[in-house]
Amino acid sequence: MKFPSFIFGFLVLYTSIPRTNAADTISANQILRYNQTIVSAQETFELGFFSPPNSTNHYVGIWYKKISTRTVVWIANRNTPLTHTSRELTLTLQGVLVLRDATMGNVVWSSMNSTTTSVRNPIGHLLDTGNFIIYEEGDDHNQESPIWQSFDFLTDTLLPGMKQGKDFVTGIERHLTSWGSKEDPASGEFSVSIHTRGYPQLILTQGQNITYRVGPWNGAWFSGAPRLRPNPIYSITFGFEPTSPDQWRVADWSQGCRHTVPLDCDPGEGFNKYSNLKLPDTQGSWYNLTMTLVECEQMCKNNCSCTAYANSNISGSGCLLWFGGLIDMRTAEDGDAIYIRMSASELESIEDSKSSSPGRRSVRVIVPVAFVVFVILVSICLFHCFNRKKQKRQGTSSNKFRHESANGSGDEDLELPLFGLSTILKATNNFSMNNKLGEGGFGPVYKAWVLHNENRSLELVAKCLGESINVPQVLRSIHVALLCVQRRPEDRPTMTSVIVMLGSQGPLPSPKEPGFYVGKTTPDNTQSSSSCEICSNNELSNTVLIGR
Predict the structure, then answer these.
(1) N or C terminus: which one in the chain shows less Cβ crowding within 10 Å?
(2) Do residues 98 and 107 lie in contact, with contact meaning Cβ atoms separated by under 8 Å?
């Protein structure tokens, strides 16, 4: 029974021991000691005391939590290290982060600066971005605009969300500075910053000397930011020559190049566009963010000391002017365009070289050939369309009547003749009922057959023709016409026979009764009460003439 009581007492004692878990905040007057840290919510970053390898100095810093090899991204007291473990980090009631030497009692480092403002209930919070912020507790909105943040004081690492450059409101200037050595996080001699003399640009300095210039910001990126690939060999663009050819041959390009033809402010001078370049050093430049490119060109052209101009933003806005030498230019795949002042002779030579380039020569050959081919194709299409319309028009006329009637051109009439309305009116006495023989699907048949049988066919000829007619030819034509309208189809001559009949003088058969003539029906009990109707005796349909 004693054994279970002992176990119970041990469990009670164990659960009563206070356990501390690393939080992501520090409250006012809370002390963070040597062996204590705070960890961001997702355990991405950790803040606390550390010592570099092979060093006895101690620093307050922020490092990656889950990386086995400690990688420090921010240091508070990089230039004022502690040499012993008696140290503490405290957040004061005024919202100031203070690092003290516990032994001596003196302040080694603090976040106090000219922009720090007093707050009530301050709280320090380590975010998963790696930013340590101090804000007033109770209002989450204050986290977006803290009274102090580590991101404003860069060391050697640029994290997502950090900013570089000068804040003209607070006066804080943010730049990266290398470590003194692998074991010493003190400020080294290399620094990366936004140079604000002239148009802002990103530069790398060693002490006071500029060792590399990335180039100005063009609205999307720094114009000369290189890609990770082998460095290209220096070359000179058209219109320039090395300042020192001897040094250029031994790969010493420090003296740069110069115009082949010196500038002398001649009215014929102009500008030539060069693309995909890292823009020159902007320390001595002039800029305006609202001017257009046309205004920029005009301003540079009016100033003889202006050597080049460009847009300050890749969107096409803003103006950058350079005066004097164009320093540190190089080819960049995603570089910008710059317009460099050139002499009249240089511009003329550039145009000649462009026009004599293989591409231009090809264009000079291709364009005329393409134009000739185009004209030929259009001509063929037009001729084809015209020919088709002509054939269609001729085919339509041929369908109406196989051949054209005699129209004074001397062509032979191979089909039925075409008569005008005036001729028909005269021949039928204005469609007189006395001249009508019958009606049917092919219209009225007149008394030509009766007159022919009575040897009076000439009465069908209009009197106005007088003696101008050829009587035998007229009589033969009427005779042939009556043969063509005989009642029985097998009695009718073929068109070949008609041609032979009209062209010869041989005897012709006597025409039989036409296919249509007037007859009277006998009254029928099954039909209408009409006593007499005009109808077709051969039981074909009747055609009723209706004026249109």
Answers:
(1) C
(2) yes
